[in-house]
């Protein structure tokens, strides 16, 4: 008979401490992802993040853009 393999460590799909902490902070803030990105893009202080730097503001606005404006498609030349 084959013995059942025992797994060591964290079971598949289990969250690590960092992920659990981030999920808890996101749920506590009550903001959706695009709302959080816009708040950071506006330079507002966000709980758990603090005051964003200029680079973080630009990155947040780039990440939020697809939620609000679709990409322009190429026009077929005739």
Task: Give a structural overview.
This protein is mainly α and 78 residues long. The protein is 47% helix and 0% strand. Helix 2 crosses helix 3. The longest helix is centred in the C-terminal third of the chain and has 15 residues, at 54-68. The mean pLDDT is 83.
Count of helical stretches: 3
Q: What pattern of helices and strands is seen along the backbone?
A: HHH
Which class of secondary structure composition applies to the elements? mainly alpha
Radius of gyration: 21 Å
Concise summary:
The chain has helices at residues 17-29, 33-41, 54-68. The protein is mainly alpha-helical.
Write the layout of secondary structure elements.
Layout: H1 17-29, H2 33-41, H3 54-68
Provide keyphrases for this structure.
3 helices, 78 residues, mainly alpha, flat, single chain
